Automatic annotation (TrEMBL):
InterPro entries: Mopterin_OxRdtase_euk, OxRdtase_Mopterin-bd_dom, OxRdtase_Mopterin-bd_sf. SUPFAM superfamilies: Oxidoreductase molybdopterin-binding domain. Keywords: Membrane, Transmembrane, Transmembrane helix. The keyword Phosphoprotein does not apply. Residues 198-207 have a biased composition (Basic and acidic residues). This is Oxidoreductase molybdopterin-binding domain-containing protein. GO terms for molecular function: oxidoreductase activity. Residues 198-220 are annotated as: Disordered. It comes from Streptomyces antioxidans. Residues 290-423 form the Oxidoreductase molybdopterin-binding domain. The chain crosses the membrane at residues 21-50, 88-108, 129-149, 161-182, 227-245. The keyword Transmembrane helix applies.
């Protein structure tokens, strides 16, 4: 009868791969060291794009406190800014999944080291490792599930992903501070080109050292380190191919197999991606039928009620803009036509300096039924209450009878099925 391992050495003999060692771990760590800060910064920019300090209805992460120190008013120029930053965030996050899993595989003996705590310093290191591994898996898992529309975690994605990112980054900073000198020495101990030329038959375990990653009883190699790096690189490249097209567009859009909204949505003027259908958010035919009215409220209680026919008789303007969503997908540029938000503000007493506006949808359920757009978003001449797209009336799923389109704003802030606009007094 076999006995459970009693010592740390006994436990490390369970992990027998001859590839494990500080050098391979450091290579994976170096890639993540470059990629994860980019993910973090683009994620923070994504949060800022929602203008959470503008109004409580925009703030999906209340009580953020000092963590919101960097927030700024999201610009409308360049109009493609959110499309790029969120596309990079989602695509890079997906591409790094094989690297993260390979990194975790390479350090798995450390996760089961015995005894778990040997000193106060070791306890702090173990705690940082726990937060690092747990935080990393949590952030990647919530991000990927949100992209795939299979989000299953309890609670809202936005605060969980936001707070999780800060915890993960704090643990990463501690871990890098503790391990960076060792990583540099380890990377210098072996030449990358020499490792890439080493065949499986010539692969040897790394020398034992204080990291405890090298197996005391390694098995015969079945793959070289070159093969391991190639396998991870191939996995990342494959994920890039089946993901990036959702934000790059063009012929690559058809390759976006992992993008629920990235595939070809059909032909015609309204043949471009949508986030949510009218039926999915409870928009009924009578909500957007002949009895639909747009209520516009403004200064000193002024109010006007507009039918779609009257909106069609107002001065119309055009804007060529894409839609970019938090899931990383974006449309090609579409030609929108409608009434400028600034002109609607002028109808209710805000001709000189249009203020921020509360936009409310007639949708009955679902998130982002209302949003607040900032003053400079309202004043941008490309910000429209759109009635048509690409020369045709909006389809019901694209927001008929009227929707907002704002340059540079996240897709969920381009509210569909608009029923009320309230200029000023929205705080």
């Amino acid at each position: 009868m076999s006995h459970p391992p009693r010592t740390d050495r006994d436990r490390r003999t369970l992990w027998r791969s001859p590839l494990r060692g500080p050098w391979l771990t450091s290579v994976f760590g170096l890639i993540l060291l470059f990629g994860i800060p980019v993910l973090f910064v683009t994620g923070l920019l994504s949060y800022a794009a929602y203008n959470p300090d503008l109004s409580p209805v925009n703030d999906k992460t209340p009580d953020k406190g000092l963590l919101g120190f960097y927030l700024f008013s999201w610009p409308t120029d360049p109009s493609w800014l959110y499309r790029v930053t969120q596309g990079v965030h989602v695509t890079l996050g997906v591409v790094l999944v094989p690297v993260l899993l390979a990194k975790l595989w390479s350090v798995i003996p450390k996760l089961f080291a015995w005894p778990p705590v040997r000193s106060l310093g070791h306890a702090l290191e173990r705690l940082s490792l726990l937060l690092l591994v747990g935080g990393g898996l949590f952030e990647f898992a919530t991000g990927v599930l949100n992209v795939q529309l299979d989000y299953v975690f309890p609670g809202s994605f936005y605060p969980l992903h936001f707070y999780g990112a800060w915890i993960f980054m704090a643990a990463l900073v501690v871990h890098v501070a503790l391990r960076f000198p060792l990583m540099v020495r380890t990377l210098r101990s072996r030449e990358l080109r020499a490792e890439l030329r080493t065949r499986t038959a010539d692969t040897r375990p790394e020398p034992p050292d204080e990291t405890g990653l090298v197996s005391p009883r390694p098995a015969a190699p079945t793959m070289s380190r070159r093969g391991a790096l190639a396998m991870v690189g191939t996995g990342s490249f494959a994920l890039l191919v089946v993901t990036a097209g959702q934000s790059i567009g063009g012929p690559l859009r058809t390759s976006a197999l992992l993008a629920p909204h990235g595939r070809d949505p059909g032909r015609g003027p309204n043949g471009f991606q949508i986030n949510k259908t009218a039926a999915a958010v409870g928009v009924r035919a009578r909500d957007i039928g002949p009895d639909w009215r747009l209520v516009v409220r403004g200064a000193a209680g002024r109010e006007t009620v507009l039918t779609r026919e009257r909106l069609l008789r107002l001065d119309h303007h055009g804007a060529t803009l894409p839609i970019a969503c938090v899931e990383g997908w974006s449309t090609a540029d579409q030609r929108w036509e409608g009434v400028r938000l600034a002109d609607l503000a002028a109808l209710v007493g805000h001709a000189d300096r249009p203020p921020e506006v509360l936009v409310e949808s007639v949708q009955r359920h679902g998130s982002f039924r209302s949003v607040v757009l900032s003053e400079h978003q309202v004043r941008d001449p490309r910000s429209l209450l759109a009635l048509k797209v690409n020369g045709a009336d909006l389809s019901p799923d694209h927001g008929y009878p009227a929707r907002v389109i704002v340059p540079g704003a996240p897709g969920v802030h381009n509210t569909k099925w608009v029923g009320r606009l309230t200029f000023g007094g929205t705080a």
